[in-house]
Amino acid sequence: MFDRVRRLFTIKTKFEAYLVIYGLGTGAVERGMHYLDRFPGLGGKMLFLLCPVAVFMAGAKILDTFDIPQ
User: Fold this and answer.
1) Checking phi first, is residue 24 left (phi over 0); if not, alpha (psi -120 to 50) or beta?
2) pLDDT beyond 70 at 69
3) What does pTM read for this prediction?
4) pLDDT at res. 68
């Protein structure tokens, strides 16, 4: 039973990886917009910029799990 549920949360293809990264990116930008509203000025802009950077690092890690044909 748990194996069937676990398969739902396993990324099998690069297309699924790109969809996950897109979802993370849109969520990060939304959170960054809240940071801009909550912390006006340089602090909010810095927090806004750090949100997508975290997605870039996570996206690179996700894409590194797939084999690259050489």
Assistant:
1) alpha
2) no
3) 0.80
4) 66
